[in-house]
Amino acid sequence: MDWKEVGKKVAVAAPALGMAMAGPGGAAVGAMVAAAFGVEGNPDSVASIVSSPDAAVRLRELELRNAEVLASLAVQQLQAELNDVQNARAIHRDHWMPSALTIALAAMVAGMVAALMLIDTPKSNESVIYLIAGQLIGAFATAVAYWLGSSRGSVNKQRALEARQ
């Protein structure tokens, strides 16, 4: 078991604490939880005590006492993710491959739609076609998100990070 798995269990009672435990600072947050419960600072020991109803109350108290630290960890994690995305876009800005992949995916989606409209497919192949179509459309959506930005949530995260600085 690792801290990410323990963080999922902790998040049921204390969402911010669980999220911090599942992030890059998981070992430090896990050690804090272990100290609060008087157990060894490893994922297995902490996982064994966080499932009880009594533990839920104590985890929530711990989360509330350390809300500022947990919020700071969440901001650091979001900033690291944002920097990673911005760095990847900056590195590949002038490279031909992202453009070529996006064009290829657009052509594949257009070809797939045309084929589905013009060609009758056997019933026995429907599930395979659904699988391939879903994967292709998902890849195309990711390519479009690369160029246009991933979502409204990313904009909101960026604004939250800028407001805290």
Give a verbal description of the structure:
With 165 residues, this protein is an all-alpha fold. The protein has two domains: 3-71, no CATH class; 95-164. Helices cover 81% and strands 0% of the residues. The longest helix is centred in the middle third of the chain and has 26 residues, at 67-92. The two termini are 35 Å apart. The mean pLDDT is 84.
Mind sketching the topology for me?
Elements: H1 3-11, H2 15-22, H3 26-37, H4 43-49, H5 53-65, H6 67-92, H7 97-118, H8 126-148, H9 152-164
Largest sheet: none
Q: How many runs of DSSP E, i.e. beta strands?
A: 0
Instruction: Estimate the global geometry from the Cα principal axes.
Output: elongated
What Rg do the Cα atoms give?
22 Å
Total domain units: 2
SSE class? mainly alpha
Count of helix runs: 9
Percent of residues in helices: over 70%
Average pLDDT metric: 84
Q: Approximately what portion of the residues adopt beta-strand conformation?
A: under 5%
End-to-end span in angstroms?
35 Å
- Poorly predicted segments: none
The helix-strand sequence is: HHHHHHHHH
Compose a concise summary of this entry.
The protein has 165 residues and is mainly alpha-helical.
Features:
single chain; 165 residues; mainly alpha; 2 domains
